Amino acid sequence: TVAVVLFTADLRLHDHPPLHAALRAADEVVPLFVRDPAVHAAGFDAPNRAAFLADCLADLDSSLRRRGGRLVVRSGPVAREVRAVAADCGATEVHMAAGVTGYAHRREERLRRALGADGVRLRVHDAVVTAVAPGAVAPTGSDHFAVFTPYFRRWSGQSLRGPLPAPRAVRVPDAVRGEEPPSRAGMPGLSPQLAEGGETAGRARFARWARADLSRYEEHHDDLAGDATSRLSPYLHFGALSPVELIHRARERGGAGAEAFERQLCWRDFHHQVLAARPDASVRDYRTRHDRWRGAEEAAGDIAAWREGRTGYPLVDAGLRQLRTEGWMHNRARLVVASFLTKTLYVDWRIGARHFLDLLVDGDIVNNQLNWQWVAGTGTDSRPHRVLNPVRQGRRYDPDGTYVRRWVPELAGVGAETVHEPWRLPAERRAVLGYPEPLVGLADGLARFRQARERG
Ligand code: FAD
């Protein structure tokens, strides 16, 4: 017997329930990845993620080859391709991971219909992309938690399966044809310091980070210059690492750092269960409707300066320039730049979210859109009117200005006292820095935000 495993946001061999189940059920398995033009049409294959995806696919292919198999890559509408592959090899089952986005729901529906017509069974596995399946825990009277802390309490009480080992051997039927996996070589428009993708690179990064930094994660995760977070988000986005396995590995090490890391992984699950219940929250305000945002035309100049990292607020600019260079940004900086765009510049969160999705290598409809909503005050945040002051945030999380100087070379020679407020320098000094004056006064921005809020 033959089974197909459709890989989606789970590009790994370790702890892979669909692959595990398929190998138990069938003699031969087709590991399949489909490059669906719908992803391109939605503008979701931005260069950084396309390159990281190519790395993941190449790594998956070589891991499968070491086990006697290979990855079959096809291009075309996903249901059509899966159906054709299943027909070519006489598969009776297709296994895949459950997804939460609108796209994932439509994909599952189409597959069910297409495969059902041929009598092929579709088996969708939970808790592959997340540690706990969306909907597995819910408050009384609702299908999802809108507040993190009670969710975290219930989530922590769930028993997780033990991590599944990677298979030793995979036999792929000869008859199935595929194309060469894509390669990042020659791809245009990549951030110059983009991380390397793939399960192998992800596992190595986790091992290194767990040894060196996990124990100090709780204390240092907000230290912008220390850069002590795991940087595993792109591997989690593509499923090159399993959240279930990471939680087990962290628990084995134990301590406050491991607990804090697990809590961040719970944030990821939290947002997944929100979006699973409310797929429209990827584009529409989740809770508080906010109709008065300034849009692309009204705020064109401010938006352009923000995107380029030329707002005149050093921490904001540092974050946005890190994003351009690495395709990644520290969480603390993400909070500050998002608060600045939505609360200080009073620009629609969707405009910022789009820019993030254009560049972030971990750019993810679930985590990106819902974190943006959280900061913008339209989402699940219980303090929707909170505004992060970029000067105070800088003094607190980058006290000597190392992070700012790393990303804003104009300020390289400015000392810690003024690096977050270069407008306090004498005019003649400012004139030679070549660093922009603040786009807007913080107090003016705040006043506009408050007025708009009062108007509803
Ligand atoms: P660590 O601190 O090492 O955390 C470990 C893992 O926990 C992360 O890899 C991530 O998977 C998860 N995690 C941590 N914080 C969050 C969070 N707030 N929400 C959801 N998961 C979290 N994360 C994305 O993966 N993709 C996005 O597109 C994304 N967009 C964001 C946009 C904004 C405006 C904000 C404020 C946050 C966004 N985040 C996003 C969440 C967070 O900033 C990143 O997950 C984190 O910075 C990744 O770095 P790390 O892997 O070193 O995190």
From TrEMBL:
One Pfam entry name: DNA_photolyase
Family: Belongs to the DNA photolyase family.
Keywords: Chromophore, FAD, Flavoprotein
Source species of the chain: Streptomyces levis
The keyword Flavoprotein is annotated on this UniProt entry: yes
Photolyase/cryptochrome alpha/beta domain location: 1-130
Region of interest: Disordered: 175-196
Protein name as it appears in the record: Deoxyribodipyrimidine photo-lyase
